[in-house]
Every structure is written in C-alpha cells, then in structure tokens.
Write a structure and sequence with these properties.
By secondary structure, this protein is an alpha+beta fold. Helix content is about 20%, strand content about 30%. Among the domains are: about 260 residues, tricorn interacting facor f3 domain (Immunoglobulin-like); about 110 residues; about 70 residues, no CATH class. Strands 5-4-8-2-1-11-14-13 form an eight-stranded mixed sheet, with no helix packed on it. A hairpin with a 2-residue loop joins strand 4 and strand 5.
Length: about 700
C-alpha cells in the first residue's frame, strides 16, 4: 500500500511545480496553491477539492450576478490596509487572482465589485500590463491585452483598489465601522451579496476558491494598545515594521467568497485546544477589550468546544481541523455569522449557547458543504437551527434538562407551523437582493421549517441512518456545493429507498426555479389504533387534511405516536414512527425505512399492552393530528369463521379481504386459509402463544380465483 501513495505524492508535487512555472505574481513570486509547508492532509485536500471531485464552475451557469462564467477561480492572495481610526471607513489593497479558463478564447473577465470603488485607484494588471476596465452595475469587466486561447489555461491578474464601502442598508451590511475612539473597529458581514461591497471576487458558491493567503496591514501603536486582525485560516505571522503591523493568514480549504471575513479591532485573545474525534484543533476567542463579561463568554465557548467533538462523531470530523475553530466579537447587523473557521458574534451573543452552537454547526452545513445557489439556503440554516437542539440533547456539559430540550423542540415546531405561506426552499424572484431575501417569510422559513425538515429526517431514518446520511453528505461533498437533491440522494442511499416525495412536500424545490412545487403548510393526520391482544398494536391513517393555503395535495412523510400503559405516570411506553407513503401505503420508520406496505394497516409486537396513545408529543414532525382507539379495528386478521376460502369476506375480522402486499394476522387454529393462485410470502413470523399470529406481506403474482 505504500507504493501507490508514493506515486500519488509524486504526481501532486509535479502538478504544483508546473503551476509555479507557469504563473508568478508581482515581483516574480511563485503561486503557492499547494504550499508544501502545510500539513500533508491539508495539501492533499486542496489539490483534490476541485480537480478530482468534479466541482469546477459549470461553464453553463455562474453565480447570481453571472460573473466569471468563463473561469474557475483557484487562488487569491489579498493584501489589505485598514485603519479603524479613520473618519471614513476606507479599505484598500490588492487582490491577486489565479484562475483556470473553462472556455476557449477568453478575452474578457468579469468580477463582482461595488460601484463605490469606481475611482482612479482601481487598476487591473495582467502580467504587468494595465488592462482596460469598466465598473457598472457592481460588475467589474476586465478586457485582457491578449486573448487566452486554450481551455484549462492557468493564469492570473491583479486588481488594485481603494475606497469606502457602501453604508449598511437593512440586511445588506457588507464592511462597516463601529465603536468609538479609542476602541473603533471594523468588521464584515457579506451574506448574501455584500462580499462585492468590500473586495473584488467571483461571488459564486459553485466556484469556491481553493485556497487563499490573506495579508492585512494595520497601525502599530504600543503592545498594550494595538489592533489585532480576525480572519480566516491560520495566523502564521504578524511582523511589525515601523508604525505598521502585517498579519498573515493562510487557508487551504475551499471557501465561498461570502464566507471570507475581515475584522480589525482591539481584541483580548484567548486560546484553547478543542478535539475532533481525537485530533487537536486550535480554538481561538477574540473579545473586544472594552466589553464586559469575558469570563462568562469564554466559559460558554469552552462548552461549545465539547459540541465540536460531539458533532465530529455524528457528522464527520470538524471540516477545518488543520486550521482553527473559534469566535470573534463585534459583529454588526446580526447575532452571529459563520465565517469559515472563525465565526463572528455580536457582543451580546458571545455567551449564548444556542447562537454559538448554531454558528458552529454552520462550519459543516454552509461552509464545508455550501448551497449551490441562494435558493437552497435552507441547507445551511436548517441543519444549524436543528443543531441548537441536537447539541442541547447530546452534550450534557451544556446544562440543558430534558424539559429544556422538549421546550426547544416544541418551540421550533410552533414557529415552523406559523410560517404557513412560504417554503423552506426559495424561488428565484425572492432572492434577488439581501433585503428581499431576508425581509420576506423565506428569511424565516429557511431556519424554522428547514430545522423541522432535518428533525423529520432524523425521526424517519433513526439515529444510525441519520448519522450515516449526514456524514456521507459532509465527507463526499467536502469543499463543494450542493442542492436539496444532493441531500436527498444521500438519504436515499442510506435508507435504501427513494423519499423524493418527502422533499417535494416539505421542502418544495431544489436549485434554481421560478416557483415551489410543494413545501407550504403542514398536514393534520387522524390516526386510529387498537391493541387486539396482549402486547399487540395495530394502527392506520384514517384521514389527512392540509393547512389552509398549503400547495400540497397530500403530505408524504413520517408520523410519530407515543404509546403508554397509563394516561399519566406510565411505567412503560414506546415511540412509534411510521412513514405515510400516500395512497394507503404505510412503512415502518424510525430505524431505517421500509418499502411501502399496501392496505393502510401496520402491526407491531410490543413489550407491554398499550392503553393510551398521544400524537407526536415530542415534536418529531411538523404535522399536527389526533389518535383514537377503535376496539373494532383489528388490521387484516383472519378468523376463518365461515370456511377456508381466502376471498370470503366473512372469514376476515371487519369483513375486509386484504389487498395485495398487506400485512395479515392469522389468529385461528380452525379453518386455516387455503391460499389461492400463486402467492409469495415474505417475512413470516409466529408468536409463542397458543394461537399463532403471522405477519405476512402478501405479494400476489397472479389474479385470485
């Protein structure tokens, strides 16, 4: 096994050397895409992120603005100069962009950049030659001095710029200045379209930047009164030169442009070691020095380090374990923002366990695997909202009680039900701007309804299959982007069956589209159950209605019921989860998922005889409902009252002959049934009682006589 590894390493080194020979930056320094001084794991991940997993930008589609459709951005080296003390919030520097052409005859290249930077400082060079450029409608168009003829050509350009980013406008924050002298600071919040407000980039989640070097020069005052920089990746140098200090970061994990962060302030810094499945991870907390409650804040963040390890064991290792994890203070315009490797927090949220857990979960869902377009934003916000409750349940050090967790679950369900006019998935017209996206109901459904979708996936799959699907989604799509269909496919594979209708009914779409195909409202299920004999349970769906305004004809999905041996103070109980496939077809769920079973009846062997039932009293599903005992309901039970003829209705309790594929109980020792035609019998079982009871999914292969 050693030889193939050696061959792979030789190939990778050869690839990097070829890139360095082809492309150099200003002054001739080589392009450091691979950066051999990094740990080998990071190096290998970087080179395979796009080349071997098929995630280069799709030449037929780009991000919301459409920029960079003819290139695949592979690397940025940014050099920013920031002084928070200035009266105007000015930012300037250079962005060196290495790209690979994905179309022939590239003569122009477009990038996202706000019109505020359309001034004399905006200069673009290509191999030392100044390019013609225009900046209009927040799109920078660069005309190259010579056409790049071949596809897959690695090349580079340099953008120098300086100016004042636009002021915050509602949900559009961008890059802002806050605080008062002597504690002024700057910070970024780029979600959803405000990355262009402060740096030139290709804003396209389908074309993540493979790696970045981030160099930030700030004023050097005194050791006791100095600015520090919060940014992505590993801080590896902070050289002081005269009255300036340059902080140098490097990140070797693919990153979406809106997850790039920059904050300059007077931080008090705390460092810890977290663990991801046994791997030590640097944890960093940056808290603004002029704020109070540092001990309370660091104590909360210490607890969240335990959550990092817990999620690593359930969703795959913390995705950026070779660089860092942490939180920094001073976020403007939101409670938290999941910048890759270093989440920004509002000062008032730094001790909020739910917000900290939410942002941590985003490092998996949103950062490692990013939604391909803003239509599928719920793929980030839904799992993160779910994780607030999941962490409270799974990590005792957080201090939540079972009652706390129950309250959180029911609160999520109530919030999701109340958002009954929009789906978790976002139509094209509702995501054109940050203000439009976050101000309409979709800005809430992505959290609440999205969180309930993940909750229901857990309920229907069961813990083992749920973790299997979530982990495969994270590991196989690491560093890439996804759509709702991507997550669906991973659950389909884990479950061994297709739950397309569940995603259609509860999510409403996947990728770019004009309108939802479902995803609005919730069902109310009327369930019927009975215990026809000791330790037995049969149940069925009596009816389903949909909430007012729903665009779903019939919701396919999990139904959760709680059975006990008393009305209160029970000593025995069990939670039953079934899957309603629609059309009278039901399936066993909660520990994997069975194929549809016709006949609208399922039976269960329990360890006790149930006497009472409660409809989803633990908030596992979005549905509401009732559950009623019907002593006459026996499922499909043969008693052979009249004869041995299978198709004689009077031989069946409730005088109903079971349909093909239904479960059947044979509960008599006289007039045993004679099976007509050709019948295949699966999953035959017998109970150890005087009267045998068989549960048989019957499959008829020819018509009955």
């Amino acid at each position: 096994m050693r030889k193939p590894l050696l061959i792979a390493i030789v190939l990778i080194f050869s690839f990097v050397n070829r890139l360095a020979a082809q492309a150099t930056g200003p002054g001739g320094e080589p392009y450091r895409h691979g950066l051999l001084s990094q740990p080998r794991g990071a190096f290998i991940k970087n080179t395979t992120g796009k080349e071997l997993t098929g995630s280069p930008a799709d030449p037929g589609f780009s991000g919301q603005s459409g920029t960079g459709a003819n290139i695949d951005v592979v690397y940025h080296r940014v050099n920013w100069t920031v002084d928070p003390r200035t009266a105007t919030n000015i930012i300037g520097g250079s962005v060196v962009t290495y790209f690979k052409t994905i179309a022939a005859n590239v003569a122009t290249i477009t990038m996202d950049l706000h019109n505020n930077f359309n001034n004399g400082s905006l200069v673009v060079t290509y191999h030392g030659t100044t390019c013609t450029r225009t900046l209009a409608s927040n799109i920078l168009t660069v005309t190259l001095p010579s056409t790049i003829a071949a596809i897959n050509t690695l090349d580079s350009l340099v953008i120098n710029y300086s100016g004042v980013p636009p002021a915050a406008a509602g949900a559009a924050q961008g890059y802002q200045q806050a605080g008062t002298t002597p504690d002024k600071y700057t910070g970024s919040l780029s979600e959803s379209y405000e990355d262009r407000d402060w740096w030139p980039c290709k804003a396209d989640m389908q074309d993540k930047v493979d790696s970045m070097d981030i160099n930030v020069t700030v004023p050097w005052v005194t050791p006791a009164d100095t600015f520090w920089v919060a940014s992505n990746g590993r801080l590896y140098d902070s050289t002081i030169t005269g009255n300036s200090r340059t902080f140098r970061f490097r990140t070797r994990y693919p990153i979406a442009s809106y997850l790039v962060t920059l904050s300059v302030g007077k931080f008090t810094r705390y460092y810890r070691t977290a663990y991801a499945n046994g791997t030590a991870v640097q944890a960093a907390y940056y808290i603004l020095r002029n704020t109070t409650g540092h001990a309370t804040k660091t104590a909360a963040m210490d607890k969240v380090n335990v959550v990092l390890d817990s999620l690593s064991r359930r969703w795959g290792d913390y995705p950026f374990k070779l660089e860092k994890h942490g939180f920094y203070d001073g976020l403007i315009g939101a409670g938290g923002m999941e910048h890759q490797t270093f989440s920004a927090m509002a000062s008032g949220s730094m001790a909020s366990l739910s917000t900290l857990n939410h942002e941590l979960a985003h490092q998996w869902f949103g950062d490692n695997v990013t939604f391909a377009t803003w239509n599928d934003l719920w793929l980030a916000e839904g799992p993160a909202r779910f994780a607030e409750i999941y962490a409270a349940e799974k990590v005792p050090v957080l201090g939540y009680t079972a009652a706390d967790v129950h309250t959180m679950r029911t609160g999520l369900r109530t919030a999701a039900r109340n958002l009954n006019t929009a789906s978790a998935w976002i139509p094209n017209a509702n995501m054109a701007t940050s203000a439009l996206l976050w101000a309409n109901p979709y800005g809430s459904t992505v959290y609440e309804r999205g969180g309930m979708v993940i909750t229901m996936l857990r309920a229907l799959a069961g813990e083992a299959k749920f973790m299997e699907a979530m982990t495969s989604y994270q590991t196989e799509l690491a560093g890439r982007s996804a759509t709702t269909d991507s997550l669906k496919n991973h659950f389909n594979r884990a479950l061994g069956t297709d739950i397309n209708e569940f995603f259609r009914d509860y999510v409403g779409g996947s990728g770019k589209a004009a309108a939802a195909v479902g995803g609005v409202g919730h069902p109310t299920n009327n369930m019927v159950w009975n215990s026809p004999s000791a330790n037995k349970l049969v149940l069925k769906v009596n009816s389903q209605t949909q909430s007012a305004g729903s665009n779903v004809t019939y919701f396919n999905g999990p139904v959760a019921m709680h059975f006990t041996n008393a009305a209160t103070g029970w000593t025995k109980d069990t939670m039953i989860v079934i899957y309603d496939w629609g059309g009278g077809n039901l399936g066993y769920a909660g520990n994997g998922l069975s194929e549809p079973i016709p006949g609208n009846a399922l039976s269960f062997d329990l360890s006790f005889t149930p006497t009472h039932a409660f409809y989803d009293d633990s908030a596992k599903t979005l549905s509401s409902g009732t559950i009623t005992q019907d002593p006459a309901f026996m499922g499909y039970t043969w008693d052979g009252t009249t004869s041995a003829a299978w198709n004689t209705t009077t031989n069946w309790v409730n005088t109903t002959v079971p349909p093909s594929g239904a479960q059947v109980a044979i509960s008599t020792v006289t007039n045993q049934p004679v099976l007509p035609g050709t019948i295949t019998v699966d999953d035959l079982s017998s109970t150890a009682v005087a009267v045998p009871r068989w549960e048989l999914p019957w499959i008829y292969t020819e018509p009955l006589a």
